[in-house]
Structures are given as structure tokens and as C-alpha cells.
Amino acid sequence: MLSARSLFQEIFDNDEAFRLFCSVAAGGEAQGGWENARIAALVPAEEREMGPRIARHGADEDKHGRIFTALMRKRGLEPVEVPTDVDYTMLLERDGIGLPHHKLRREEQLSVRDLVVYLAHSRVTEQRASEQMRLLCAVFGDHPDVGRAVRMISSDEDHHLAYCHEELLRLSAAGYGRLIRRTLRETALAEIAVYRDVSIAVMARMGRILGWTAPKRAALTAGIHAMYALERAGGWRRMVTLRMPEPAMRDALGGPAVPAPEFA
């Protein structure tokens, strides 16, 4: 029987599959770290109080990349180059989601509208990340190394999501509500398509590494398409709703980043 638990266990038990999985995850997190660091450096003067929180977001993403790399190296594995067809962050940028890298490489101050685009992109992608990490916690939460890693990353992703809700609600109250709603919708609809394509590409590569049968590959591909159909029919709306975080999660990125665990 196919299940998320059995699939992740297969990937975890095979060095080559585990290396690809962690390399993809580490590459995406490192990219997110760079993007947030650049946005923090270019934050407009009227929103300068956001700068430290954006920088904290970037520091967390960098930390996650180091954690996935450390998990590989603990098993004597080195990262592999991330194939283009599974590069989630690059494919989102290609489709015009988030702030373009050519803008982030310049030294020109961003606008508040740019911050709306950044926060909408983060709101949608952090929803995906939060859900994925909760799934990994359910599968590997008791593992001595992987469990510590996924629990820490899951907690960080929940904080990132709370931060996005709070900042977008603040900017909505400041008059950017229509722009926020439109940008969130466009971002979510693009993200679910990219996620579908990346999921199919990842499963194809894992299937070759793990020697999956044609019927198993076909069943997994059909499942991915079915999930996309559900998201396209209305599941995407979970990515665009905004609600004020619980009091304990207010100002979720207001303090220093929590250091990564050691994997001796």
C-alpha cells in the first residue's frame, strides 16, 4: 500500500535517494536565505522596522539549508547539484512569482509594493513548507537525528507563516488590501502548478533511483495530478486567507534566530 510514510521511509533508507531529497531541500532553503537577506538590505525607509525580521527569516532559511547538508554528511554523503526540473524556488521565479533576482541584485531601495509581493510569496510558500514539515514530523519525529531536525524546521516554518499573516494584515489595514488579495491569489494559483510539476519530476527521479515499477510510478503520478485538481478546485484558498496569529505567535520573528542542532 502506498502511503507518505512508506515513501519517505524508502527514500530515507537509500543513500542516493536521501542525498537527492536533502540536496533539493538544502538548495531551496539556501536560496530563500539569500533572497531574504537581500530584501532586508533593500527594505524601504518607511518600513525599516521590518528589516530585522526579514533578516531573521533569511537566517532561519540559511540554518535549514545547513541542517539538511549536515544530515547528508552524517551519513558520509555530499550534496548533488539540484536538477532544474526539481528546483522549486527557481521555477517560481521563472514564472514571475516573488521579487525577481535581477531586482534583488541591484542596490536600489525596494518599495512597499515590493514588500507586498515578497510577503505574499512567503505567505503561500511558507504554507506549503509548514504542511510538508508537519508531515515529516509525523513520519520521522522519533528519529534521533532527523526528528530533531524536522521538529526545529517545522517550528521555524510555523513562525514564518505567523509573521507573514501579521505583516500582511498590517499592510492591508494601511491601504494595500486590494493589492494583497490580488497578489496572494496569483501567487497561490502559480505555486500549485509549480508544486505539481516539481512533485512529478521528483517522483520520476526517485522512481529511477529506487527501481519503482511502472504501475507504482503511474499511481504516484496520478495521485499528484489528483491533488493538483483538488487544489485548483478550491484548495488553493487555504494559502490566501489571513488571520491574526494567536498571542503566543505575535511578532514571531522579533527575536534572535535559534541555532541549528549539532549532528555529531
Tell me what the structure shows.
- The structure is a single chain.
- The chain is mainly α.
- It has helices at residues 4-13, 15-41, 51-74, 88-94, 101-105, 112-140, 146-210, 214-233.
- Helices cover 71% and strands 0% of the residues.
- Helix 1 (4-13) crosses helix 6 (112-140), helix 2 (15-41) runs antiparallel to helix 3 and helix 3 crosses helix 7.
- The mean pLDDT is 94.
- It is built from 8 helices and no strands.
**Biggest pleated sheet:** none
Order of helices and strands: HHHHHHHH
Q: What is the number of E strands? A: 0
Helix content: over 70%
Q: Strand fraction band?
A: under 5%
Oligomer: single chain
Shape: globular
Mean of all residue-level pLDDT scores? 94
Distance between the termini: 35 Å
Separate helix tally = 8
Provide the low-confidence segments as ranges. Answer: none
Structural class per helix/strand content? mainly alpha
Q: Report the C-alpha radius of gyration, rounded.
A: 18 Å
